[in-house]
Amino acid sequence: MMIRITKQYYGDFGESAADVSANAPKEIIQATSNIGHDWPLWEVFIRSKQGLDHKHVGSLHAADAQMAIENARDVYTRRMEGVSIWVVESTYIHASNPDEAESLYDPASDKAYRHPTFYDLPDAVKHM
Amino acid sequence: MQIHDLEKVFLDKIEEEIKIEPRDWMPDAYRKNLVRQISQHAHSEIVGMLPEGNWISRAPSLKRKAILIAKVQDEAGHGLYLYSAAETLGTSREETINDLHSGKAKYSSIFNYPTTSWADMGAIGWLVDGAAIINQVMLCRTSYGPYARAMVRICREESFHQRQGFEILLVLSRGTAEQKAMCQDAINRWWWPSLMMFGPRDGESTHSDQSMKWKIKRMSNDELRQKFIDMIAEQVKVLGMTLPDPDLKWNESRQHYDFGEIDWNEFWNVVKGNGPCNKQRIEARKNAWDEGAWVREAAAAYANKKKLKTNNGLEAA
Predict the structure, then answer these.
(1) CB atoms within 10 A of CB B138
(2) CA dist., res. A63 & res. A40, Å (int)
(3) How many A-B residue pairs are in contact by the CB < 8 A criterion?
(4) Region A103-122: what's the mean pLDDT?
(5) Interface pTM (ipTM) of the complex?
């Protein structure tokens, strides 16, 4: 078996290593692929301390919501990074389309008067 | 938009240091390159648990045992952050893990070396994690958003790994003659493989050019390696130990350490699967995966049953 690997280093290996799979013993491939499908993917949101918003921190696979929360605890709060966890199945997240960003956010771009710095006031006016 | 317009938008973003996010258009080759690099980085974290996991039951004190467990647990977490980042590019987790088990995907060759004494836990933390950190700090500025965010999280957690490793060696270096010898022996065995972690020399690194243009990588293999050597050559003095390279010498005009030639034959041999532990590592991974199959199946069955119950309950109401 001729394995051709042109390049490999930490975190960046040669993609011609893909050739290897065709030559790998069949039983290995079968043994690892008859396990069944992935558990659903969940997005994880953590409140880092009371008074702050929950913030997206990452995602993980879990069979159900309870397992997702427990895994999120183990993965994302090992150093007391959170006091509250939200999980939601990724399939329920709806996102805006980045290709439509221009038209979607266009209405805000010419309204400088919505910002306090738009207004010129004399220096004598304090605390405003 | 035409493909070349999309490509221009993409390249402009790279140029302006605007991160690429999962739903943005990106060239296929950029996606493929990232999937390869991120998943192999993830596999390295996962396989990296094995040489250290072997020492949890043999740690010399309860304190060291607790530290080692925490470190190995971190590595599982780091694998997860990276698998998640790879997944945002459209590959399934199952596919990624199968590629590791079938040998299609690679992981860092460093984990194909055996850990033969407790001092190796120190040398791995100091040298192997030290080399990884140099690479990972650079990757915090990589152009793909989810990868960069995973790296920031990892770097935040990783610095204790290097410090605990150095501390293990520091304690040994102040111990008995036998402990000092253990310390030096571990450094001797891990030094060269650690330098190989940065990959082939710049001229022989085929993906590097494109990765640098796309700002996936921000520094070359040789630059990173030099940075590592300069750092370690100073730190080893604190241990009162030496690095196993007679050519290692401060070069006043370069303001860097000169160093000897890496054994590239050994490097390619281990890459090609002929390292001391290549087979054991993959075997251990596959066993863990196969022996855990019933747990995954049971959890899935339980979740299904609960879902059915909830649905029936709703219909009845």
Answers:
(1) 16
(2) 6
(3) 152
(4) 91
(5) 0.88
Which among A24, A36, A41 has CB closest to B102? Answer: A24
What is the reported pLDDT for B205?
A: 78
pLDDT at A95 over 90: no
Contact criterion met (CB below 8 Å) for B46 and B97: no
Determine contact: A37 vs chain B, CB below 8 A: yes
Instruction: Kindly give the pairing relationship between strand A54-61 and strand A12-13.
Output: unpaired
Per-residue pLDDT tens digits for B156-188: 999 899 999 999 999 999 999 999 999 999 999
Amino acid at B173: S
Reported pTM: 0.86
How far is residue A75 from each of residues A106, B81, B268, B278, measured CA to CA in Å? Answer: 39, 9, 35, 28
For residue B190, how many other CB atoms are within 10 A of its CB? 23
Cβ of residue A69 closer than 8 Å to a chain B Cβ: no
Q: Which of A10, A32, A58 sits opposite B101 (nearest CB)?
A: A32
Tens-digit pLDDT profile for residues A41-66: 999 999 999 999 999 999 999 999 99
Q: What is the DSSP letter of A38?
A: P
What's A25-41 look like in SS3? CHHHHHHHHCCCCCCCE
